[in-house]
Amino acid sequence: MSLRTAGSVLVVFLWSVTVVLGQNGWRVTYTTQSICTLKGSTVELTCSFRYPRGKVTTTFWFTEWGTGVEPKDLGQDPEYAGRLEYHGDKKKDCTLKITDLRERDSATYKFRFITDQTRGKYYGHPGVTLSVTGLQVKVTGGHQDKTLTCITTCTLTDNPTYIWYKNGHKVKEDTSSLDSDSFSDADSYSCAVKGHEDLLSPAVYGPRNTSVSVSPSGEIVEGSSVTLTCSSDANPPVQSYTWWYKKNGGDYQSMTGPQHVFNQIQSSDTGEYYCVSQNEMGTDRSRTINMDVKYAPKNTSVSVSPSGEIVEGSSVTLTCSSDANPPVDKYTWYFQNETFLNGCGQMYNISNFRSEDSGHYHCEAWNGRGSRNSTALMIIIPGKQTSVLTAAVGIIVVVLVLILCFSGFMWFR
């Protein structure tokens, strides 16, 4: 067996025990029945043929043969366009060269020739089984005692020497496995076959560029549906995602999965969030994002100062309070359900409280998300209210007495 290479071209000549089939002088001899070679390389399927008489008019290789029709010439297949080179002749050599091999080229290839004689057609069985494989790095073991193995889907025919690369630099050869007590999460590893170093395996590496995206983007409004998605570049693919979050200054909590979904997000969900991705090669964490949930004013209320009994002539201050995000940017005051013309701030001051100021007060808080009214607060001057009540009772008594006197007078008459 000899191996010739040029760049990424792998040419395989296998001079094993030949397979000779045929009868009455018809025969096709394949130098091997099975070849396993690398994706991206070049292979030669070597064979020779003999026939008893006549002249060969047609030669071709095929992989498919439908019932009742001639097999399909690979030279007419668009899949092989520009990649087939027939190195044989029409006398005895039937060697075929296939370049830029692809995994879908894996098949059993057979040679057929046709002569100018009646029934002068023949093909060689069983043909050459071609398996095309790429290199892959398999990761086994724990985080601190991993083993990397360069694997293929079939056993390479030429029994090659393997080479290992770390971050693109050669670190070891002559072994299909790479052992280490410690692999860095930031490093990447790949393998190749000696003599065909440009046919590298895909690199394996720990998660990197881990990030969190928010959908929908833009302002987050209470009651809406919000999805946080963790994504990461990793090979092998990420095995697990872990979310860490701290709501409104509380302790960190965790959950697993690539997404964190809020069907109806609440103001209590405001806080810090980040995710950690992990595969067999290591871990990586995203930056922390701050979830700021916007909502209209809530829990709006009115407080009065000083508290307790209100004295006529005293100074009274009303304060409107409300929970809102963004903060309240406008307050409106109401007295007996009528808007104050001069009550626009968070605080409303009455410097000389009089009896006519007694009544119901409430406020309305506004921000960019909406508004909310407080409950009404009743403010009175106790002394004045008692005098009014006494006068009212006195008037009622006088009226009753007059009615009784009039009734008695009418009855006496």
TrEMBL record:
**GO BP:** cell-cell adhesion
Boundaries of each Ig-like domain copy? 126-201, 207-290, 297-379
Q: Highest taxon of the source?
A: Eukaryota
**What are the record keywords, sorted?**
Membrane, Signal, Transmembrane, Transmembrane helix
GO CC aspect terms: membrane
Signal sequence, renumbered to the chain = 1-22
InterPro entries recorded: Ig-like_dom, Ig-like_dom_sf, Ig-like_fold, Ig_CD22, Ig_sub, Ig_sub2, VCAM-1
Residues spanning the membrane: 388-412
Matching entries from PANTHER family are given as: B-CELL RECEPTOR CD22-RELATED, VASCULAR CELL ADHESION MOLECULE 1
Its job: Most highly expressed siglec (sialic acid-binding immunoglobulin-like lectin) on B-cells that plays a role in various aspects of B-cell biology including differentiation, antigen presentation, and trafficking to bone marrow. Binds to alpha 2,6-linked sialic acid residues of surface molecules such as CD22 itself, CD45 and IgM in a cis configuration. Can also bind to ligands on other cells as an adhesion molecule in a trans configuration.
- Know the name of this protein? B-cell receptor CD22
Q: Which organism is it from?
A: Oncorhynchus tshawytscha
Underlying gene:
LOC121843184
